[in-house]
Design goal:
CATH topology: UDP N-Acetylglucosamine Acyltransferase, domain 1
Structural class: mainly beta
Largest sheet: 8 strands, mixed
Strand order of the largest sheet: 2-5-8-11-14-17-19-20
Number of helices: 1
CATH architecture: 3 Solenoid
Number of strands: 20
Order of helices and strands: HEEEEEEEEEEEEEEEEEEEE
Length: about 190
């Protein structure tokens, strides 16, 4: 019974946090409080789970839009388990997508790629949209970089670094991530 009340309180705190940050929710959203910075637009579909594990584990979900033009759109029934998302331009995550703990999705280089340390502090940052289509499964501690599209029903193996598009209906993995095999109807 105590756990049920704790879950209700945590969900209420999360809803309040989302409201204060002007995040549009299209239905019920569950989870614990997250790291949240919304300087752009965020939209969360019905049934999104924002799971964070702060009791001794290092995986806290973090949703960030850094510029007024930045957008983050998360479809219905998406599960984020200690997932970090940084959008300077646009990130779209399709319905029924699931992330293992410790994944990162980023549509930019975070800082200019320069040798000069002063120049690295500039605002000239390369960015390109990220699109994860519906029913994608991203394994634990994977990194999805700028400009990537991952096709529907695809599985990204744990620990992968995705730097190029991945087609629909495949299992892909590695650093850099490559197609391992096509999924069949039996999968």
């Amino acid at each position: 019974m105590f756990e049920r009340w704790t879950t209700r309180i945590e969900s209420a705190l999360l809803r309040r946090q989302l409201e204060r940050a002007r995040v549009v929710t299209k239905g019920a959203v569950s989870g614990r409080r997250i790291v949240l910075r919304n300087h752009g637009q965020m939209e969360l579909g019905n049934g999104v789970a924002l799971n964070s594990f702060p009791q001794g584990e290092s995986f806290v979900t973090s949703l960030n839009t850094w510029l007024p033009d930045a957008s983050l759109e998360i479809g219905e029934q998406v599960v984020l388990n200690g997932t970090v998302i940084h959008a300077r331009q646009r990130i779209h995550i399709g319905a029924w997508t699931m992330f293992g703990p410790g994944c990162v999705v980023i549509d930019n280089d975070s800082h200019p790629l320069r040798r000069d340390p002063q120049a690295r502090r500039g605002r000239d940052v390369a960015a390109a949209p990220v699109d994860l289509q519906s029913n994608v499964w991203v394994g634990m501690r994977s990194l999805i970089m700028k400009g990537v599209t991952i096709g529907e029903n695809s599985i990204i193996a744990a620990g992968s670094i995705v730097t190029r598009d991945i087609p629909a209906n495949v299992i892909a993995g590695g650093a850099p991530c490559k197609v391992i095999r096509r999924l069949t109807d039996a999968d």
